[in-house]
Amino acid sequence: MRHRSLRQQVTLLVGVLCFALVCIVAVGAAYIAQSRVRGIVMAHEAQQAAVIAKILDRGMFERYREARNLAAMPALKAIWTGEPANIRQTLEQIQASYPDYAWIGYVTPDGTVQAATQGMLEGQSVQARPWFQDGLKGPAVGDVHEAKLLAKLLGPAPNNEPFRFVDVAAPVRDDAGRIVGVIGVHLSWIWADETRQSILGNRYHEDGRSIWILSADGTMLLGPQIGSRPFPDEHLLSMRQAKAGAFEDVSGPEAMLTGFAVAEGYRDYPGLGWIVVSRQPDSIAFAATRGIVWMILGLGCAIAAIGLVCALIIARGVVRPLQTIIEAANRIGRDPAITQLPRVTGSLEIVQLSSALRSLLRRAGAAEQQVIATSSQHAKDVSTLRHLAETDALSGLLNRRGFSLLADDAFSLYRRYERPLAVLILDIDHFKTVNDTYGHVAGDTVIRSVGAALTKALRTSDKVARFGGEEFVVLVHEVDSGGIITVAQNLRRAVEALTIEHQDQRITVTISVGGAMARRSDEDVQEVIERADSALYRAKAAGRNRVVIDGMQIQLASAVA
């Protein structure tokens, strides 16, 4: 170093220092970015698995409830003991309302299929089938399996895989409580695959993302190599114990960020213990991170080059032009009148440095404006997505997610300040008849009209949401036990007085209302909703077009609130 010029020494030292700093910053940025991205992606995969598990559980709950209600419906008792043709017609109408029902049958207590959709398996014995044996004991759900007899009758599945089904069964009893038959439903497992595809879309083929569904014992039900066991027993045990979470799976040729959630059932549907697994390759998750690291390296190299130029100028003793630049640069940000560096004369290097710094300031200003514009657009996009996520697309009301956020906040205020709070659950009576008579488009019109009528009849402080199907829920603030009956009756009368016009047809409907007041003993708002839901069942059982508030007598349709 003693025999080198000052310019060479400064240039060499600055070059080494700049290169070292760029490497340190790039490595640090890569580590931080990958750590944060890994956490974000794993949380996303776990959340996605949990969402799918809830969708599966609630979908199975609906099928479980439909089979149970079908078997227990008083209006159908005469049909079950009637002609097979009438039973078949009823079953086919039910199948038409939900195409994923691959087969519905009515079986006599000796195991003979008396009537079924499309006449399939009629006259054959299913006495040895587990779903029939369990259905004699009570409402039951069976895990995914192949049905060879039905597969032959139904033909190949749309995805060219063997037909597989989930069984739902419920006993049919006469007025004396004796079992006179069993309703059996085979739900096509294609339903689960369609749910998966609706969430993944084309990404399943484009970037290696995948969603698996495993049985309670870890057998692959949906995914590659159906029937295999992708995880060892100890790993499955930890997943079932944790219920939900995420991990990095390094057992395959490529590391996979993996989230999981155990489907534990919903309400009185016990669940089958399915394990939903959502996976994403590390290479896809960290693609953006690698781009950021290369950008940092490029920017660091550019800054290092500028440092070398500055070092050369300083080493050559060009102090005065540099001092001019330094003084002007120091005033930028302090003196509003100074927004740009002055042009200086001198050596070519000084002129180039002056020009480069002025260009850098211009680029920095342009980049700052772009960042501000991007941040503003991002905020708007987030707001729009949040609104879409919390709004029911058909009725324009809050959906279950949006309602839950409001309800949790309202319950917290109730627990803190003891401000009265109540929940009403409303269900359109005989809504299936509307769909069967006028069509599903008319049914959608009815749902929108009922939602608008409920909104109009409520105070602005009360909130109404659509929970799905023909079910609505209302959050009522600042109301006592007498006032909640008044609110419920007002809503019931508003719908009863509603005349809905659809394609020259005039449709009228009624609603049944169940409600509950929040109590100090409630752990969360879900307990209030469950009591309101139970009250709704009592209103339905009492003849519909009724109001039932938990802990109070049934309010008849003609009662004056």
Automatic annotation (TrEMBL):
Residues 316-369 form the HAMP domain. Its main location: membrane. It is found in: Cell membrane. The chain crosses the membrane at residues 12-33, 292-315. It catalyses: 2 GTP = 3',3'-c-di-GMP + 2 diphosphate. InterPro entries: dCache_1 (IPR033479), Diguanylate_Cyclase (IPR050469), GGDEF_dom (IPR000160), HAMP_dom (IPR003660), Nucleotide_cyclase (IPR029787), Rev_trsase/Diguanyl_cyclase (IPR043128), Sensor-like_sf (IPR029151). The keyword tRNA-binding does not apply. Residues 419-552 form the GGDEF domain. It comes from the Bacteria. Its EC number is 2.7.7.65. It is an enzyme of class 2 (transferase). Keywords: Cell membrane, Membrane, Transmembrane, Transmembrane helix. It is a multi-pass membrane protein. NCBIfam families: GGDEF. This is diguanylate cyclase. It comes from Microvirga terrestris.
